[in-house]
Every structure is written in C-alpha cells, then in structure tokens.
Give the backbone structure.
Amino acid sequence: MSSQNPTALNILSIARQLIMTRGYQGFSFRDISSQAGIKPASIHYHFPTKGDLGEALLIEATTEFQRQLVSIEQQHERAAQRLVAFVGIFEETFGEADRLCLVCMLAAGQDTVPAEIRARIREFWDIAVRWTEACIDKGMRAGEFYADLDSRVVAQTLLATLEGAMLTGRAYQDKQKLPESAGFILSCLRQQPEGICNSHAFE
Amino acid sequence: MSSQNPTALNILSIARQLIMTRGYQGFSFRDISSQAGIKPASIHYHFPTKGDLGEALLIEATTEFQRQLVSIEQQHERAAQRLVAFVGIFEETFGEADRLCLVCMLAAGQDTVPAEIRARIREFWDIAVRWTEACIDKGMRAGEFYADLDSRVVAQTLLATLEGAMLTGRAYQDKQKLPESAGFILSCLRQQPEGICNSHAFE
DNA sequence: GACAGTCTACCTACCAGAAGGTAGGCTGCT
DNA sequence: AGCAGCCTACCTTCTGGTAGGTAGACTGTC
C-alpha cells in the first residue's frame, strides 16, 4: 500500500472522482484502469482490495480536511469568518465538477461498504462537527452569535445542510444552492437573519 | 407494468427498502427474488428493466408524498404546524429502519441512474420545495414568521437539512439528529431561536 | 566491473460468481 | 382456448480477485 507512489496517487485521484460522481458501488477497477493507463489487475498491487482503496481514500481526505481546518484557524480569527471558510471547503469540492463530498457518497451507500470505511466516515464527521461546535462556542463567548445557542445542534445542522445542499444542488446542476443554504444557517446565528442568504455575504 | 398486481406491489415494496438502505447500484434482482419468493427472471414480467422498476418506485413515492401534503393541509391550518408535520414525513421514513429517503438515495447515485429517473428526482424535489415555500409564504403573511425571509432559500435549506440529517444520522444510528436539526431550522423562522431544538417542540 | 540475487511495477491469463436480460415452456384459472 | 403469472435454462458482460511471469532497476559481493 505504497501511497507515496505516483501511480498509487493517480489511482487514488481517479477513484476519488469516480466515487464522488458514481458512489462506491458505481465504480469498478475497470473504470480506473481505463483512465489510469494500467490494467485492472495491476491496481491490486497498490491496493489489495477495493475496501483498501476506499479506506486509503478516506484517510487521505480526513488528513487533508484537518490540514484545511488548521489553515482556517491560522488565517481567520473571528468565528464567523472561520465558519464561512469552513463552508468554502465544501463549496470548493462541489464547485469543480458535479462532485459530491467523498464522505457523503460513501455514507449514502453505507450498507454496501466495509466496516472499516464506516468507522472512517464517522471519524470524518466527528472531526467536522467537533470543530464547528468549538467554533460556534467561541463565537458565542466573543459575542458574535446569540449567547444561548445549542452549539452541538447547530454544528450538526450546518454539516447536514452542507451535505444535503450538495445532494439537491447536483440534481439541479445549481451551484448556488449550497452557499445560499449555508448562508441562511449562518445568518440565524446572530441578530439579523433577514436578507443575508449567501454565505459569502456573512462576513 | 401492472402496478396493481399484489406481486408487483410486493416487488416494489422490497425494492424500496433495498434502495433506501443500499442504493440503486447496491441492490439486484437476485436480492429482490430471495425476499419475494419469486425467481429473478420473473421480476422482468412485472418490470421489464431495472430502470422501469426504479421509475415506478419514484412515481409511487411522489404520488404518496403529494397525498401526504394534502393530508397535512387538511389537518393543520397554521403554517408552523404544517411544517412540523412536513418534517414528520421524513422522520417517519427514517425512523422505521435505517432507511434514507428513497429520492435521496437515488440522487446520490445520480450518474448511475437512467435519465428518466433523474427527471423524476427533480420532480419530487420541485414539489417538496414549492410546497414548503408556499407554506413559509403563508406563515409570513399570517405573522407567524419573520416577514422578510427568502422563502425559496429557506424551503430549499429545510429540504437539504432533512436529507443531510438522514445521511449523517444513519451513520451514527442516531434518530434524534433529524428532529433536532429540523427543529433548529424551524426555530430560526421566528423570534425565539433559542432553546427550541426539536421539531416536536415547535408547535 | 561482472555477476547473482532481489525488488518494483507492471503484465497476461484466468477464476467463480453475479449482473441484467431473453426465450420458451408449464400451470392453473376463467 | 386463452391468458396471466410464473418457471427453467441460458446468454453476455462485468465483478473483484488470484496466479504466475517478466523487464528493468537496484544492491551487495568478489
């Protein structure tokens, strides 16, 4: 499982795109091979099983995600700014192609996916929700938001909305739904919920 | 495509459960046959292709959904009550087993699904969003909600949150996430967003 | 510098099983 | 007799995965 290898990285990249558009059950080693210029059997050299491939993908995604969260904390101080940047991660993923969040797609086909992958899905969301929750707590303490929000519920709601907005947005090929919906949620955290219906407008 | 037939109805029911838990790509005619006590080939008698089965399922779901919306309008007068009942439809679907919204699952595997099904997915969501939007408009006129909400955005956000809450809720096997998140969204529609973090508590 | 041995990164050939789907035959009810 | 509703048998294509082989690069020893 030499993830450093350029071919392995290429396989991971192609597999990620495929899962994001077609789901775990919707792609095959043949699909990868045709794009990677490699025979289907050769993929097993880098990733013994399909489950190993999926797991490697989730590990990669989680690591990258955590790196992005640290980067946000370094770039922005105020909680509101951090949340907007957080939403931006999902916007970026969604914006490039008609791709859904990798974790979202794997979660949809939960019952068809190896148990190790299921654990990694929860791990990813745990990180996302805990970070968001802490961010909201910080905003509440700083007086940026309403002081008596249930940060846990708000955090899980924001994440659910992001995932759901990608799902519905893709069906309509509408890239605006995600920032609009995320913007509405964020606008509810402080006094003026009206008018601000785009996450970009939420400072 | 004799949907009146008891066997056909049984096939539809089993297929619905399977898609809700495993997705469109994740179930086969063999899976259905083992549960229906019928041979795989016999399913083709009722539904010539897998696409036909999926389409019939969506037509059924959409019809049933519209029936439920009418029922809500008959039972509840106030917009807030209607929205709570609307959320209840999704709660009911989710609560029985670890089942996601049928349309949500089909939407996730969009690229692996026939074009006719894709059109039906949008149709379902169009109905859901338009109904919710009209309901919010009504609530705004009646003074139940903030008067200057963007009802289109709020409607699409509520739907996105419901779909996303099912997705994340299932991964954690937590049935509370959906009412909690829906409750938060609904609570944002009027003056007291604090404290009310369960859709049941939102009158 | 030559040789043997080993490792990497692929290949071809193959497997068993599952996929959706078709053709034609049987059975029982009207 | 005719038809609905199912069956068996079979098709092709694809599935993830395995076995064994090979070209070429690298490594250590003499």
Q: What stands out?
A: Residues 28-30, 40-41, 44, 48-50 of chain B lie near DNA strand C (CB under 10 Å from a C1'). Chain B touches chain A through 50 residues (CB under 8 Å).
